[in-house]
Target: SsuA/THI5-like domain-containing protein
Amino acid sequence: MSIRYGISRLLATALLLAGAGIANAETIRVAIGTQDTTINCATGGLLIRELHLLGKYLPHTGKYKDATYDIQWKDFTSGAPLTNEMVAGKLDFGAMADFPGSLNGAAFQKAGKKSVFITVLEGSIQGSGNGIVVPLDSPVHSIADLKGKTISVPFASTSHGMLLRAIKAQGWNPDTDVNIITQAPEVAGSALKAGKIDAHADFVPFADLFPYRGIARKIYDGAQSNAPTFHGALVDAAYAQQYPEVVVAYLRAALEANRLLAQDPEKYSLLIQKVTGIEAPVDYLYHGPLGVQTRDLTWKPEYRQAVATAIDTLKLLKKTDVNLDAKTFVDDRYIREAFKESGLDYDAALKNYAKQPLVANDAQTGKPISDFNDVAQVWLDNEAKVHNYATPAEAFASLDKLPSSDAVRAVYVHDHASGLKLFANQAWYVRDAHGAITAFLLKTVADQYAQRVSGSVVNYAAAKTSAAQALAAR
Model:
């Protein structure tokens, strides 16, 4: 169905309200602000741009018959400067998280304008993606060890909200029981290496990127706060009213980017690395099967609540005094139409909470993997595809058989307690009396499990050695 005839009644009404319509020879600007290094925005920016997807969907019929498009892209490292340019009329679309997105809506409202959140791009209803890391040699193993310590965080970010919730859950006063300072990710990396801070809380992908680069250790995942978080896309409401079909076209491009990423996450993780410098294994941690977050373009109730929570928290932090209405700030009409015109069922997707599934055979046995609680993966430097294993022990044993010339790009395991995907060298392991190896994010949880199964807690190196010895004994 064409955009001309498939546009929904609501969007058609919005178009009529736009006034005189579009002159045939009009040049329509489509200016999009991206956050390339915030990798869970990839389907709303980087991939659309790099794969030239937007032009496939921009309308060229009816009022748009002779229109031309001036597509502009501008990359940002955070949401605040992106918002400034949107409010100034220099950008039409922007991708950012729930907290800076809410500040975007408040800034528009304060300027006598309006922006709307039109889609989620990627998120976690539990809160994964945000996290807290500590220096490698720190004695800290959980947030309970941070009382009286200095914790840095990008202020007014979604990770700031996570940190405040985590502190509240400990029964602490954030003003007296910890010392919270503001620090951008690029500054925090150096501070962690130098031991100048006790911990750093951050958003995607830094809570996983710093550990991957060997400068920090993750001790808290946002899922422990059980507070939804997401990144999504916004649009200037006046622009959307004037060009609703263009908004739908942008969202159809995002849906295609999402489909392509699901089909070949390794390929597009390498593309994200090429563009951003964020290593492909970190990108795959999010975008591969059973990833840290779910690529979900529907407005689930939990994500709507995340917006409302962000607005309330930002007011509490005195970052805004605007009474932004979350119910009208979130507008799902455009993404519903994009689903419809793409031949997809929005309501079915709205009900689906599953992560991208893993459909694979065990690389060792050849049998289909059916139990995903303890699945593990190995990605070699010289191979395009990840190898999948039913257990960490199988994956670790396979490493011992590799030729010395084969470099390992990454090894992944899953936290036995939560299912959270982890880098294997960042996990703790329980080795039971039968030689089975089980992975955990937190040492405290691993200790508890070890007591139940009469096992021992070991680090990654010891777990690999144990798996190799078990293989040799067969």
Q: What stands out?
A: The mean pLDDT is 93. The chain is about 40% helix and 20% strand. The CA atoms of residues 152 and 181 lie 5 Å apart. Residues 244-263 form the longest helix (20 residues).
